[in-house]
């Protein structure tokens, strides 16, 4: 059965997201709903950590190190976690990874309370413990994400995979919209400690969804985690040009146009409003993600997934250029006279929010088809390792992007990293997809790695 079979017959459902995966697989439904709730909390902590480190150090470079320090551990965790997902019971592995992630959130809460105690004595906590704890959290999240993605093919019929990927986009959109917005309000009104505490509480919903999964042991003969298994995965990837290209184009997008590390400085110097503006801009990107998923009905009728990914990432680069150009124009002007409620420059905020919305929407189009390609083109015994590489790209690429943006913003200006990065993305995608013609011609009706 292909994605084109069992298409929704009602006109409205040809445009809106298809809920068939939730009805077809109760296990996926519980995983989806729990993950959406827990992701809200996780995104609250992601924003709060960046804001707190900027509050402690006043350095965009230090905020960029949140991603940079965890990069190598995440790469190792992705590759190792992918092998574990191919060798062990995926449910048990996901439970362990989730518990480690929860413990790291409680550690962030303890660090925030330590900072409060230091403030009461006229000092501040050091930033490096936050970097250590977020690295542990990133490692656990990497292993958990690879495992979660690898198991979808076991609990979901093949013809519903692209629609399940679109639903996951809604979960991500909800988490990245509500989480940063709540974090911005909580940090401004109650402080960092309450923000981390809320994340720890919301974790419960996600854990229940994981706990109720069926047992998902390895199919086929027993496998030993080690170099032989890693070499087997590398050999498969060398002979999988379409999957390999899907990794490359996403690395390019995430490396050169990640604006999130710039947000604290943008909120403080360009648009005003501090954490409130940061929350709004981050939420705008998530709204773009969520709207794309809500109106994802047509994905079932799109078969040229490689072409769709290429066009989506090119659009992503164009919106990055707009974001950088807007900051450049705004930084050249005097906006004191136009400052509005809460000191926020609403016109500037609207332009940047539109660019973020476009980046979120185009990135989600790419993500839907890349995720579908990964599940359909890779055999089950390879999905863990391929998802491990996929997660390294999806989570490691942004860390490199954070360092890229932090260094160039410090050396040149806030507008420079997204403006230059957007141009680089458009140029590289045009060159690579002309060289890799098989990726442009990839057809989901005949998935080939």
Automatic annotation (TrEMBL):
Topology within the bilayer: Multi-pass membrane protein
Domain of life: Bacteria
One cellular-component annotation, GO: plasma membrane
Subcellular location(s) of the protein: Cell inner membrane
Transmembrane segment boundaries: 31-54, 60-81, 93-114, 126-146, 166-187, 193-213, 247-266, 278-300, 312-332, 344-361, 407-432
An MF annotation (GO) of this entry: transmembrane transporter activity
Family annotation (Gene3D superfamilies): MFS general substrate transporter like domains
SUPFAM superfamilies per UniProt: MFS general substrate transporter
Ranges where the Major facilitator superfamily (MFS) profile domain occurs: 198-449
Protein family (similarity comment): Belongs to the major facilitator superfamily. Drug:H(+) antiporter-3 (DHA3) (TC 2.A.1.21) family.
Stored PANTHER family: ENTEROBACTIN EXPORTER ENTS (PTHR23513:SF9), INTEGRAL MEMBRANE EFFLUX PROTEIN-RELATED (PTHR23513)
Annotated protein name in UniProt: Multidrug efflux pump Tap
């Amino acid at each position: 059965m292909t994605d084109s079979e069992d298409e929704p017959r009602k006109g409205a459902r040809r445009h809106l997201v298809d809920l068939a995966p939730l009805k077809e697989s109760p296990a996926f439904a519980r995983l989806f709903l729990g993950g959406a709730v827990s992701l809200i909390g996780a995104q609250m902590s992601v924003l709060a950590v960046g804001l707190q480190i900027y509050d402690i150090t006043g350095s965009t470079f230090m905020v960029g190190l949140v991603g940079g320090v965890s990069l190598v551990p995440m790469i190792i965790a992705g590759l190792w976690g992918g092998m574990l997902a191919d060798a062990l019971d995926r449910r048990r592995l996901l439970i362990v990874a989730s518990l480690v992630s929860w413990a790291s959130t409680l550690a962030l809460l303890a660090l925030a309370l330590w900072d409060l105690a230091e403030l009461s004595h006229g000092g501040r906590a050091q930033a490096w413990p936050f970097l250590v704890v977020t690295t542990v959290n990133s490692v656990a999240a990497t292993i958990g994400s690879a495992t979660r993605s690898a198991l979808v093919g076991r609990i979901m019929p093949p013809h519903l995979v692209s629609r399940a990927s679109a639903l996951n986009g809604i979960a991500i959109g909800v988490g990245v919209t509500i989480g940063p917005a709540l974090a911005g309000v909580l940090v401004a009104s109650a402080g960092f400690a309450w923000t981390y505490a809320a994340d720890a509480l919301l974790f419960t919903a996600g854990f229940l969804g994981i706990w109720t999964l069926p047992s998902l042991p390895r199919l086929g003969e027993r496998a030993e985690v080690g170099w032989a298994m890693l070499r087997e995965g590398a050999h498969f990837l060398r002979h999988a040009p379409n999957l390999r290209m899907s990794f490359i184009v996403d690395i390019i997008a995430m490396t050169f146009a990640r604006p999130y590390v710039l947000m604290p400085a943008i909120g403080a110097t360009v648009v005003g409003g501090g954490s409130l503006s940061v929350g709004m801009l981050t939420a705008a990107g998530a709204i773009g993600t969520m709207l794309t998923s809500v109106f994802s009905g047509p994905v079932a009728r799109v078969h040229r997934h490689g072409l769709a990914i290429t066009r989506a990432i090119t659009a992503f680069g164009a919106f990055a250029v707009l974001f950088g150009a807007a900051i450049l124009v705004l930084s050249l002007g005097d906006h004191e006279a136009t400052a509005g409620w809460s000191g926020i420059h609403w016109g500037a905020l609207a332009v940047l929010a539109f660019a973020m919305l476009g980046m979120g929407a185009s990135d989600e189009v790419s993500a839907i088809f890349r995720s579908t390609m990964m599940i359909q083109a890779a055999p089950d015994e390879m999905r863990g390792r391929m998802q491990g590489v996929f997660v390294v790209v999806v989570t490691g690429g942004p860390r490199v992007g954070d360092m890229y943006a932090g260094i160039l913003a410090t050396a040149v200006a806030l507008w420079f990293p997204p403006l230059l990065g957007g141009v680089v993305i458009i140029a590289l995608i045009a060159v690579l997809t002309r060289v890799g013609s098989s990726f442009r011609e990839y057809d989901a009706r005949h998935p080939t790695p």
